[in-house]
Amino acid sequence: MTVLPYLVAGWIFLIGVYGLVTSRDLIHAVGCLAVTQSSTYVLLLAVGYRDGGTAPVFADAPTDSRVVDPVVQALALTDIVVGATVTALLLALVVQLRKRHGTVDPDALSELKG
Amino acid sequence: MDTARLLPLVVAVPLLGAAVLVATGRRLPRLVSDIVGCAFAAVTAATALLVLFRAGRPGPGAYPVEWVSGWRRVGIVLVGDPLGAGLAALVSLLVVAVLVYSWRYFEEPPRRHTGSFPALILVFQAGMCGFALTGDLFNAFVFFELMGVVAYALTGFRVEEPKPLQGALAFGVVNSLGGYATLLGITLLYARTGELGFAQIGRRLDTEGPDGLVLAAFVLVTTGLLVKAAAVPFHFWLPDAHAVAPTPVCMLLSGVMVELGVYGVARVYWTVFSGPGGLSHPDFTRALLVLGVLTALLGAAMCWQQRHLKRLLAFSTVAHTGLFLIGVAVLTPEGISGTALYVLGHAGVKAALFACVGVLLDRYATVDEHELFGRARELPEAGALFAVGGLALSGLPPFGSGLGKAVAEEAAGHTAAWLPALYVLVSAVTGGAVLRAGLRIFAGAGRRPRDGEEDEPETTGEEEPETGGRLRRIPVPLLAVPAALLAASLAIGVIPAVGSAVGRAGALFTDTGGYRRTVLDGHAAAAPAHPPPHWQLTGILLGLLSAALAVTLATLAVRRPARTGTAALLAPVRRLQSGHIGDYVAWLVAGTALLTVLTVPGVR
C-alpha cells in the first residue's frame, strides 16, 4: 500500500475547491462540489484497502480469506446517497434561479451584499 | 418503559410524521395537515422532555444509552446525556412554536403540496435531534447533512423569488463543503483507530501520543462544525441565508441550528480529542478563543451597520455564537453550563425577535429599518415585544440570556481577565442595534435616517410578504408565540431548578472518563459535585451595565442618524460580504489554514 491514494484524495479535494472558487457558472460550481465529495470516496476506499484482499463477500470465498474492510464501503455508500441528495437539490435551485434571474453566473448575482 | 428505549423515538417520530404528511398531504386540507404536523412535533417534544427529566434527575445514575437493534461494534448509538437530551428538547419545543407561528403562513401553498412545509420542518427536527443525541461520529455526519439539506430546501422554500434561491445556494455549497471536510477527518480517525463511536475513538487514541494525523483529523472535523456554527471566517453564508429564508425558518436556523455547530465542536473535543492522545487543552483553548473573539467582534460590528432587520438579527447571531465559542473554549464545566444557559435563553429571545420581524414583513412588505421609520406606531404590542427582546438580548437580568451571559463571562474571566468586558460590549452592541431599530420603527423616534451613498455595499429590506396578501389584522399566533418565547426565556433565568439541572449537565458533559464508561461499559456515571450556576452580584451588575449601554447606544444612534466615521471604517469589512459563492469558499479554505496554524504547536 503506497501513499499515492492519499495524495490523490487530497488533490481531488483541492482541485474541486479551486473550481468552486473560480467558477463562472453555478452548474459548474455544483459539479465542482461533487468533485470535492469524490475525494471522500477515494480516501474511504484507500483506508479500507488490504494488500491481496478480495471483496468482502463470503458466498464464494472461504471464511478465513483476506478481505478489504467492509465498513468503509458501507460508509462510502451512505456518502454517495448524501451526495446525490445535495447535488440534486442544489441543481434544482440553480434551474429555478435561471428561470427567475435569467443567469447562472455567480458574478451577476448581486442582491445580497454588506 | 426503559428510558433508553425512548431515545430512538425522538428521531423516528418526526420522520414518521414527515412521511405521513408527504403521503397524505395532497389530499388533506391545510388545517388538518397543520394539526398533524404540530401533533407529531409535540409528541417528539414530550418524549425528549421525558428523557431529559429522567436523565436529569439529581443524584448518581447513568444516563440512557441505546444501541439501536443491539449492534455494539459499528451501529447506531444514541446517548441521552442531559446536555444532548436538553438540546433535543429545546429543538422540539422551538419546532412546535414555529409550527404554531406559521399557522397562517404561506396562505396559498403550492397546489397539491399542502403538507410540504410542515413535513420539511419535521425532517429538520429529526436531523437536529439526531445530531444532538448521537454517540457516533459517522452518524453525526449523516444527521449533519440531513439537517443541512433540509435547511437549504427550507431557505429556498419561496422558489418564485430570486433572492431566497441565491441565499440557499451559498448556504448549500459552503455547508456541504464543510461537511465533506468533516467526513475526510472522520475517515482519518477511522484509519487510525478502526472505530467510529466518540467514546471508542477517544479511548483508542489515548493509547498513543498525538501526531500530525490526529491534528489533521481534528482540523478537518472541526472545520465542518465551525461552518455550521458560523464562526469567522466560515460565517459568510449565514447572513445571506437568514436574510432570505422564511421567518419561521429563520427562527429555527438562528435559534438552534447554528448553536448545534458549537455543540458539535464541544462534544467532539471532549469525547474524542481531550485525552493525552488528542489535542492539548491549552492548544484547543487558544485556537477556539481566537476564533470566538474574532467572531464576536465582527458579528457585533456588522450587526450595528445593518438596516435589513433579518440581516441585523443574523449578524447578532454570529456575534453571540462567538460568545458561545469562548464559553466552550475555556474548557471548564462552568463555561459549558453558562454557555448552555446562554443558548437556551438566546434561542427564545432570538426566535421571538424574528417572529416580530415576520409581523412587520407581512404587514408592510419590507423589513428595512429606514423605510419602516415610524410606520409601526399602530402595533404597540409587537413594539413592546421587540423592545423586551432587545433588552433580553443585551443580557438584562433576570432573563435566561442574562443568566447565561453572567455565568459564562465569569467562567471566561478565569481564563483571561478582559473576556467579561468583551461579553458586555458584544451584548450591548447587538442589543443596542435591535433597540435602535425598534425605536425608529415602532416609536418613530429621532430624525428620519438618510440613505447611504450609492456605491456602498448594502442590502435593503424590500421583500415579498410570506402570507397570501398583506395582513390587515395581526392574527393571534403571530404575537402569542413571541410572547410565549420571551416568557420561556425569562423562566430560564428565574427558576433555580433550571440552573441546577444545567449545572449538572455541564459537569457530566465535561467528564470524559465518565462518558466513555457509561457508553462502553454501561457503568453508572456519577455526576461530579458542582455548585449550580446562579445569579451573583457581579453578574447582575454587568448585565445591568450592558443593558444600560445598549439603551444609551440606541438613543445616541437615533438622535444622530448622520453617518459617522465608523461606517467608513467598516466599509472594507462590509465589502467582504460580497454574496459571491467563490469568495465564501475561498474564505473557508483560509479559515481551515488559520485553524491549522492555531493548533499546530500541539504536535509534539
TrEMBL record, chain A:
Pfam families: Oxidored_q2. It is a multi-pass membrane protein. Keywords: Cell membrane, Membrane, Transmembrane, Transmembrane helix. It is found in: Cell membrane. Its main location: membrane. InterPro entries: CPA3_antiporter_subunitC, NUOK/Mnh_C1-like. It comes from the Bacteria. The chain crosses the membrane at residues 6-23, 30-50, 70-95. Belongs to the CPA3 antiporters (TC 2.A.63) subunit C family. This is Cation:proton antiporter subunit C. It comes from Streptomyces yatensis.
